[in-house]
Amino acid sequence: MRLILRMLLVVLSQLSLGQTAKVLHYSETSGFDHQTRSASLAMFQSMGVTNNFQVDDDQTGDAFNSLSNLEQYDLVVFSNTSGDAILNATQRANFEAYINNGGSFLGIHAASDTYRHSTANGSNTGTWDFYAELVGASVQQSPNHVSGTPQYSMNHLIPHASTANLPDPWVKNEEYYYWENGFFGPQNNAVLEVEETIGPNNLVNSYDASRPMSWYRELSGGGKMFYTALGHAASNFSSDPNFIQHISDAVIWIVAIPTGINETPTDHIFTIERVGYQLIISIDGGIPERTALYTILGQECTTAHSNSLNIEDLPEGVYLLKALLKDQFYFRKVYITSSN
């Protein structure tokens, strides 16, 4: 077997950050209100503290009043938005321009119950097909989803940063959406798929077949999009570590600023070389006395009293590299992808 390692050095903290990333958290509804906005905002704010990005909250759509305002954000999140009467025509046009100019989008759960595509069933469809095509789906009209929040298994489909730190399979209680009689874009790169479910009529219907629950795309304008149908209950945002990890890693994938392994970050030159299963690290030409890798949630994965770290047993994912050099700690996020 041959291990192929690709590492992207990513902005982490003010030590290495010329400008803090900014995220807009938008949660307006004109349809069903999941009442998750407070928990969702708190989750993103906590992620921002950990990963050094700023979060602005918008519950009214005012942030979409001008393109110049939207363009300050590295990512716009639609968290359990719903309905087709939340943004006016000018605000919608501004968001389209933002995306076309390289902006990025992350949608959670009912974001696919927002501005349903004209090909989806039900009434009041087709107001803003650009949005539905950006999300990549519009949830089926009736029934929308399984009854309640039953427990099913989700399997990983293709390697991606958003699933690298999740169990496979991931067993989760959730309001699993249906797509068959709604809209689902063929261009979606699905990363999670729920197993066959049982419908509200206690039968296995055609729309209960295994189906995607999370996916991503790299957009033609230069930005990225990520959507997950998970996130029905407020508890997802406050007390489900796998859901929080899923969203956190998706955000990091979207807003990450990649550089080549030997390129110069804003303040310090990190040189990272791979020799076999070892990462060999130097900083500004100096040799660190201690090095370690941590998960995004702060769990130590591997450590060494040298500048060489063993990565043989590490799964694909985003890690925090910490290095001690001359009584000072230095940090970088590294994204490790491996395949055979």
Describe this entry's structure for a reader.
There is one protein chain. This protein is an alpha+beta fold and about 350 residues long. It has helices at about 35-50, 65-70, 90-100, 130-135, 235-240, 240-255; strands spanning about 5-10, 20-25, 55-60, 75-80, 105-110, 135-140, 150-155, 170-175, 185, 190-195, 210-220, 225-230, 270-275, 280-285, 290-295, 300-305, 310, 315-325, 330-340. The strands form 4 sheets. It has a 9-stranded mixed sheet, covered by helices on one side. The longest helix has 15 residues, at about 35-50. It is globular and about 65 Å long.
Output the keywords.
nine-stranded mixed beta sheet; Rossmann fold; globular; 32% strand; 6 helices; 340 residues
Measured by DSSP, the beta-strand proportion falls in 25-35%
Which CATH C-level class of the largest domain is it?
Alpha Beta
The helix/strand class is alpha+beta
Helix percentage range: 10-25%
Mean pLDDT: 87
State the domain count. 2
Terminal Cα span? 6 Å
Poorly predicted regions are 1-19, 257-266
Specify the number of helices: 6
H/E element order? EEHEHEHEHEEEEEEEHHEEEEEEE
Q: How can the largest sheet be summarized?
A: 9 strands, mixed
Number of strands: 19
The radius of gyration is 21 Å
Strand numbers in spatial order across the main sheet: 3-2-4-5-12-11-10-7-8
CATH level-two architecture of the largest domain: 3-Layer(aba) Sandwich
Give the name of the CATH superfamily of the largest domain: Class I glutamine amidotransferase (GATase) domain
Shape: globular
By CATH, the topology of the largest domain is Rossmann fold
